[in-house]
Amino acid sequence: MTVVVTGASGHVGMNLVRALMADKRPVRALVHVNHKTLEGLGVEIVEGDISDLESLTHAFAGADVVYHLAGVISLLKNEWPLVEKINVQGTRNVIEACRQNNVKRLVHFSSIHALQQEPLNIPVDESRPLVDGKRHSPYDRSKAAGQREVRKAMASGLNAVILNPTGIWGPYDYQPSFFGAALLSMANGKMPALINGGFDWVDARDVALGAMLAEKKAPAGSEYLLSGHWVSMPEIAKEMKEISDASITGFVCPMPVARFGAPFATAYSRLSGKRPYYTTVSLAALHSNHNISHEKATRELGYQPRPFRETLTDTLKWYQQNGDLKCRLK
Fold first, then answer.
1. What are phi and psi for residue 30, nearest 5 degrees?
2. Is the sign of the CA dihedral 269, 274, 275, 278 positive or negative?
3. Is the dihedral of CA 68, 80, 139, 218 positive or negative?
4. pLDDT in tens, 302-327
5. What contacts 24+ positions apart, CB below 8 Å, involve 266-269?
6. Is residue 280 a contact partner of residue 256, using CB atoms and an 8 Å limit?
7. What is the DSSP letter of 250?
8. What's the confidence (pLDDT) of residue 191?
9. Could you give phi then psi for residue 245, rounded to 5 degrees?
10. For a disulfide at 208, which of 19, 23, 70, 87, Cβ 3.0-4.6 Å?
11. pLDDT tens column, 226-270
12. Residue 164: phi, psi to the nearest 5?
């Protein structure tokens, strides 16, 4: 039973491919540009572009299951054309290619950012409405729009499941991802300030296993939150100091000050050619809901996220083995 993974060379994709291979599943990895990290794993590698329906139709031929992970993350407010092309139109193409090839099940990766966070004092679960309106960032709106496309397809008969993971850390983060780059910046002493905020973090390995459970167990049309543990930036720094000799700043910037300075920090990052960490979009995420419930996924699928300390330790160990980490682990 052939399984296709779009975005296979990305962070979650690398973990999912390995988990599928461990489950002795024949995997076809759809990649757009870089496939070096997939070489030697024993997977079938196919080049394609989710903005090109013809390439997807070719890639999905003979597939029974498609995991759709490919997408683009943006922390800026002026990138709607890009995120709309990849996260919305690309998802439409994936749906159409599944239909043309009679794919038996689509597992679509959305995001916690697709769901409204307010009210902040009530836990977020699968009943939360999708974000809408320009008060939300382009990325959030694009993930919500992509999720709506899958919902429409399910209503017309497509056998699909939707997953909404939270902030993802974990091994095999080669690029690295945005969250991984931020963690490395903190560990390598390059983050000038911590923010008095946090996020719900989940291990990429748990997300991969949760997706496989959803493929096998979930009723058609189901949606699941795959969350982990809410941990603040200062708490992450504290735990990092306990497991390494990282030289981490002790300065914690109040959220109002950070929000005031975010446009200037973003402009500086653009001019210097560096990836911006603290933008108005990322700061809004660090001030989002503290309680993201994975109760449904646990009850129906048996999903169990591992402790945050284990994720942090294993992630840093992997970066160390990959030559990205400058500090020493204890």
1. -90, 120
2. negative
3. negative
4. 999 999 999 999 999 999 999 999 99
5. 266/76
6. no
7. -
8. 85
9. -100, 30
10. 19
11. 999 999 999 999 999 999 999 888 788 888 887 877 676 666 666
12. -125, 85
Neighbours of 41 (CB within 10 A): 14
Q: Which helix (H) or strand (E) holds 106?
A: strand 105-109
CB-based contact 255:197 (threshold 8 Å)? yes
User: Tokens 């429409």 identify what position?
Assistant: 152
Q: How far apart are CA 115 and CA 165, in angstroms?
A: 11
pLDDT at 215 over 80: yes
* Look-up of token digits 């697709």: 114
Using alpha carbons, select from 111, 122, 103 the residue that is nearest to residue 289: 122
Single-letter residue type at 240: M
273-282's contacts with Cβ under 8 Å and 24+ in sequence apart are 275/178, 275/181, 276/75, 276/76, 277/181, 277/182, 277/185, 277/191, 278/195, 279/75, 279/76, 280/77, 281/74, 281/75, 281/76, 281/77, 281/137, 281/139, 282/75
Q: Which residues contact 263 (CB under 8 A, 6 or more apart)?
A: 280
Q: pTM for this one? A: 0.95
Nearest-angstrom CA–CA distance, 3 and 22: 13
Q: What is the DSSP string of 190-237?
A: ----EES-EEEEEEHHHHHHHHHHHHHHPPTT-EEEE--EEEEHHHHH
